[in-house]
Design goal:
Leucine-rich repeat, LRR (right-handed beta-alpha superhelix), F-box domain-containing protein, 227 residues, alpha/beta, 14% strand
Length: 227
């Protein structure tokens, strides 16, 4: 009886387990409470495609990924595809998709500056116009690191040729330039060195085009040179 009496006359209220926040309601969405710059920083640590997928979360997230300062266009599953296709077949089948992806991202990108711009796919001189536009975009956004990696198994006779003299290849922000399987002539490197005074790292691999390169100047800040 005493037990029943205690239960009947108790003033305690049952704990509400369905209130917002306890079961993951809107109040519990701590991530969305963070300021935009923190969210952009978090997305910068994701792959580019993962960051883009966050646009479906809400209207606030729709455009946030477009402000990330790291644009790394790494090709997914390329080596798996290569198990079934030759290099030429890969370029014919997958390169148009890759070019379209890069173009769509840079057309919608909103950050005024870039920490890194990276192209990593099996491209050659057939894609010269697109690649040159991408380089121009990277310089226009004052990229600190620029990397073109077109893979060494592409026929060297069809390598993309880095522009020799271009007004866009002038930057006070560029600190690192990496070119792999890209034809680069002496004059192009010398032009970059003269017009990118903060350049600290220059990496060129599989170019085969150097003949009489001069790397000199009192204003050079190079810490690493790999040719």
């Amino acid at each position: 009886m005493d037990a029943n009496r205690v239960g009947t006359h108790s003033n305690s209220k049952p704990e509400m387990c369905d209130k917002a926040g306890y079961l993951g309601g809107k109040d519990d969405d701590r991530l969305s409470k963070l300021p935009d710059d923190i969210l952009v920083d978090i997305m910068s640590r994701m792959s580019l495609k993962e960051a883009a997928r966050t646009s479906v979360l809400s209207s606030r997230w729709k455009h946030l990924w477009k402000y990330i300062p790291f644009l790394k266009f790494d090709a997914d599953n390329v080596y798996k595809i290569m198990d079934h296709h030759s290099a030429d077949e890969l370029i014919e089948i997958e390169a148009p998709k890759y070019v379209e992806w890069v173009n769509s991202v840079i057309q919608s990108h909103k950050s005024p500056t870039l920490k890194q711009f990276k192209i990593h796919f099996h491209l050659d001189r057939r894609h010269t116009d697109a690649i040159t536009r991408w380089i121009e975009f990277a310089f226009s956004r004052q990229a600190e690191r620029l990397e073109l990696n077109h893979e060494s198994f592409v026929n060297p006779k069809r390598y993309y040729c880095f522009p020799r003299f271009h007004s866009f290849a002038t930057s006070n922000s560029l600190k690192a330039l990496s070119l792999k399987s890209v034809h680069v002539r002496d004059a192009a490197v010398e032009f970059i060195l003269r017009n990118c005074p903060r350049l600290e790292e220059l990496f060129v691999r599989y170019s085969h085009n150097f003949s009489n390169l001069e790397v000199c100047g009192s204003s050079l800040k190079l810490k690493r040179l790999d040719l």
